[in-house]
Specification:
The structure is a single chain. By secondary structure, the chain is α/β, with parallel strands linked by helices. It has two domains: 50 residues, no CATH class; 200 residues, 3-Layer(aba) Sandwich (Rossmann fold). It contains eleven helices and six strands. The strands form two sheets. The chain has a four-stranded parallel beta sheet. The protein has a two-stranded antiparallel ribbon with strand order 3-4. The structure holds zinc ion (ZN) (2 copies). The site of one zinc ion has 8 residues, from helix 4.
């Protein structure tokens, strides 16, 4: 490298240290003004952030949906057994989110992983920072589906979140059978299709000293639909770790 070029690079690095470049939008790549980033804490520019509907206001204490008619929503009140303490989601599963989720999940646009995970630290800070969470885990894909898609979007988002909030991430569940898309089923079908789908199977090297010891685990997924996926995953987790309190966290709902 010529001395001239070396100097230019070194000076550039020094300038970056002194004046960090503004972070760029996870969707369009435009720079984000510092003030906006501080207000929202997501890696999106104002124009892109406006496409999403952030969930805030009065919510169901259990599933986190927007709910003003009391403490617990109708779905949660009707569920015979709830195995998670509570679940929270960052944004509504609106048109923009559906589109990005499909681009990420089914068309394998993995650049979007950071954008998806970028919605979560804010929610984490609000609901989980005070809960002393020991582990983050994620909803597993069936082995066959994982081969097709080559990556598990829930695991990617969970690992990115874990590195930001400083909580260890471990694969603790396996999916015993592939399930068809939730959206293709009737409500009744959705509520029952997930029964007995998961089992507790911690990844190699995950050292848990005593399975009955109390611990707190957050299960990360991309979308919360009826809560039956999260509930069954929490059920399976508690079968293997009877001392665990299980929580849910999804990007959208
Ligand atoms: Zn943007
Ligand atoms: Zn609810």
């Amino acid at each position: 490298m010529g001395a001239d070029l070396w100097w230019k690079k070194a000076a550039g690095r020094l300038l970056d240290l002194l004046y960090p470049p503004p972070p760029s939008c996870g969707l369009c790549g435009r720079n984000i003004a510092a003030g906006f980033r501080e207000r929202t804490s997501v890696s999106l520019c104002p124009a892109c952030a406006a496409k999403f509907c952030f969930l805030s206001g009065s919510i169901c204490r259990v599933c986190g949906r927007l709910w003003t008619e009391g403490d617990v929503c109708g779905d949660c009140a009707r569920r015979p057994d709830t195995f998670f303490v509570f679940s929270r989601s960052a944004v509504a599963y609106n048109h923009a989110m559906k589109e990005y989720m499909a681009r990420y999940k089914y068309r394998g646009d993995r650049k979007l992983a950071g954008m998806m995970a970028g919605f979560l630290p804010q929610i984490w800070k609000r609901y989980y920072a005070g809960e002393q969470i020991d582990w983050i885990t994620y909803i597993p894909l069936h082995a066959e589906r994982l081969r097709e898609r080559t990556f598990n979007q829930a695991e990617e988002v969970a690992r990115l979140l874990g590195s930001v909030v400083g909580v260890p991430v471990a694969g603790l569940l396996v999916r015993k059978r592939a399930t068809e898309k939730q959206s293709r089923r009737t409500r009744y079908g959705r509520l029952h299709a997930m029964e007995n789908v998961f089992s507790y199977c911690p990844e190699a090297g995950w050292g848990v000293p005593d399975s009955s010891a109390p611990c707190r685990i957050v299960i990360v997924d991309d979308v919360y639909t009826t809560g039956s996926t999260l509930n069954e995953a929490a059920h399976a987790l508690k079968a293997g770790l009877p001392g665990a309190d299980v929580y849910g966290l999804t990007v959208a709902r």
